[in-house]
Write a structure and sequence with these properties.
2 domains, 17% strand, 57% helix, six-stranded mixed β-barrel
Length: 402
Amino acid sequence: MNFGEMFMSAMASLLANKLRSFLTMLGILIGVASIISIVAVGNGGKRAVVNALSNGQTQNTIQILPKELVVPGLPQPGQVLSVSQADLDIAQQFSGVQRVDYTITGQTNVTAGTHTINASIDAGPDYLNALAQFQVIKGHMFQASDVVAARPVVLLSNTLAGKLFGSGNPVGGIVTIGGTPFQVIGVTASQQVNLFSLFLGSDYAYMPATTCQNLFPTWGITEMDVQTRPGVNQDELANHIVTALNVNAGDANAFETSTGFLTTVESTINRVTSILTLVIGAIAGIALLVGGVGVMNIMLVSVTERTQEIGIRMSLGATRTAILLQFLMESVMITAIGGLVGILLGTGVGVAVSAVTHVPTFVQWPVVVFSFLFSAVIGVVCGLYPANKAARLNPIDALRYE
């Protein structure tokens, strides 16, 4: 019996017992699908987080922030730093710097009527330009006079506006922040894009920097935004500025660029996702092994049921090797088909998660290949004993078996 004949014989045997074959491969299918979906969702989530942070950086802007950062309203372990006016002056002295802006970020309650939400407050002196990247879906942007007069006006993210005002129009409404009533002048379609968005959520209230400094005088500057001149080597300039800031602070590690921050965040995310993938992957691996035991059990049952068939084939000249390979082929086909269906199912789960969460998933081909090969190897390992048992049957005893 050649390979093609063995393949067709194994396929016919599986199709003759469709339900049993499906239930047998179910453990393999679930294990492979779990591995594929976990890796796809994990990689997609990791990329989404890093991209979300990276998107906060504009082409001609260097973002500098303290390594030990204080965000008012959040718990702060140990010693923390913030950007001072002296730090802004140091950065402005470099010839490659066109202007230096800053961002003040904090957490506090925002109240409208009976609704109170703990939201992120964002303020900066250049918001007339910085907020131009947003689509104001209701109301209007700040006016220059709002900044000069430090008026109590505020823009709300659409998420925060929905929580405070429901389906009503928030423009013209009053919210209370820090005990002061603010007039809502607009609603943005997107949350503020900066390095803190990931950690502080999507409930944002934006106000002029002058207003924020009057209302929260103890809040420090959380981020320095350095706009560079055309043709300047940004990496080199950033290193010079950070070095000067660290010398002034008396600490070689006091400040870092957003690139360094992103590297640290990405490293942390990689460690966390690797641990989670390892743990959940181990569980999926156990499911594969359990599925393999199920394959072995069913193949032993199949050998017992087909004992007379084996005896007839041996009496007609079939070798022990041919018998062994036929049953081994059936075992491998069960696990291989289960692996293929599991790959498709796992990919489908990833696509479904992406559709629901709007976070793109990423399936790595090495993981797909490994999952398929591993399922096939399980078929070989778990099918070897039943196949060997079938090959060692005595033809005479097999023919007598009932």
